[in-house]
Structure to design on (62 residues):
């Protein structure tokens, strides 16, 4: 199916705006984490992303 065969959307999609969860930080929350699908995602900027959620794996080079 081609994109040209589809009807135009009735309305624009809604965007979910999420900022960093740290009090007073106004940066965009680009890093999110949730332990399961039942728990809402929490968002942080790169500066405030908790170390507990970071994956510390060495990069593999070919």
């Amino acid at each position: 199916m081609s994109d040209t065969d589809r009807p135009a959307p009735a309305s624009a999609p809604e965007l979910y705006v999420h900022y960093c969860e740290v009090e007073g930080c106004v940066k965009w929350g680009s890093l999110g984490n949730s332990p399961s699908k039942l728990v809402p995602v929490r968002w942080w900027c790169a500066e405030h992303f908790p170390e507990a959620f970071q994956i510390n794996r060495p990069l593999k080079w070919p």
